[in-house]
């Protein structure tokens, strides 16, 4: 096993969420994972002080980044840190991004992806109205990075509805794509599995879809069903609700064979010209 997807039911208690994340990361490492993906908003879900959290982390006074670095070192893990609010580098008072960070096994940050597509949607649930743009600025670039499990493209949640992003990640050499998420119960029940499997099939990548799965302050209910999908669209591991650790192995030879037998990348007759330039992380 060399990849892990973690499902959580995060609340508005940051220390408790970090303790849970650390426990699940340890389980992933014990299970043999080299790369583990946390869900969207793993450190806090339901709090309204995201700007204050972002400034504290940017100024080195928050608990989240030190916890992640220590966990990476303690467990020898590469960690995709779901999302957390962070302002642009060097601008601690600017509007935060929903930021997905990649840490290596030494606790060093090697990549940062700022969520491109913000969830400004009306949903037929208890909450009804979601406006991520009230709290976050959108990102500008796609991000790929080399990891021990393969070349990783980063995405987040609502991004799953925009296939051109995933085509660009494949163009940039992605072999795996992380998708930390917090789909609502309503939208997840309707579309989650279709979207995750479609993005895996069309890119011929492993999709590492780490979700929130349960009840949160707000009120908010998330769909869960974290899943690892292979390049043929097959779910390798899945969990419906509650906390959990999913493990799978990337079969590089099989992935290469799938891409050779069905060379969709070579057959494609057009590409999206306005996709932002990728950021290369070595």
From TrEMBL:
Keywords: Hydrolase. This is Hydrolase, carbon-nitrogen family. PANTHER family: DEAMINATED GLUTATHIONE AMIDASE, NITRILASE-RELATED. Pfam families: CN_hydrolase. It comes from Azotobacter vinelandii (strain DJ / ATCC BAA-1303). Gene3D superfamilies: Carbon-nitrogen hydrolase. Belongs to the carbon-nitrogen hydrolase superfamily. NIT1/NIT2 family. InterPro entries: C-N_Hydrolase (IPR003010), C-N_Hydrolase_sf (IPR036526), Nit1/2_C-N_Hydrolase (IPR045254), UPF0012_CS (IPR001110). Residues 1-252 form the CN hydrolase domain. GO terms for molecular function: hydrolase activity, acting on carbon-nitrogen (but not peptide) bonds, in linear amides. It comes from the Bacteria.
């Amino acid at each position: 096993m060399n990849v892990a997807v973690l499902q959580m039911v995060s609340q508005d208690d940051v220390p408790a969420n970090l303790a849970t994340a650390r426990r699940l990361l340890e389980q992933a490492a014990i299970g043999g994972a080299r790369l583990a993906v946390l869900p969207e908003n793993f450190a806090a879900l339901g709090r309204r002080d995201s700007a204050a959290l972002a400034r504290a982390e940017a100024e080195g006074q928050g608990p989240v980044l030190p916890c992640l670095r220590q966990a990476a070192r303690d467990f020898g893990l590469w960690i995709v840190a779901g999302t957390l609010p962070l302002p642009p580098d060097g601008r601690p008072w600017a509007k935060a991004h929903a930021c997905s960070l990649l840490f290596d096994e030494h606790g060093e940050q090697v990549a940062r992806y700022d969520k491109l597509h913000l969830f400004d949607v009306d949903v037929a649930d208890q909450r009804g109205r979601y406006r991520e743009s009230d709290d976050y600025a959108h990102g500008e670039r796609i991000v790929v990075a080399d990891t021990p499990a393969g070349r990783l493209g980063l995405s987040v949640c609502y991004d799953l509805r925009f296939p051109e992003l995933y085509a660009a990640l494949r163009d940039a050499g992605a072999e795996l794509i992380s998708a930390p998420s917090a789909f609502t119960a309503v939208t997840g029940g309707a579309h989650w599995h279709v979207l995750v499997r479609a993005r895996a099939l069309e890119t011929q990548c492993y999709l590492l879809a780490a979700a929130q799965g349960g009840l949160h302050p707000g009120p908010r209910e998330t769909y869960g069903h974290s899943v690892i999908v292979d390049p043929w669209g097959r779910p390798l591991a899945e969990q419906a609700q509650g906390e959990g650790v999913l493990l799978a192995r990337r079969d590089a030879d099989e992935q290469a064979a799938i891409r050779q037998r069905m060379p969709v990348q070579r057959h494609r007759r057009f590409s999206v010209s306005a996709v932002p330039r990728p950021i290369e992380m070595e």
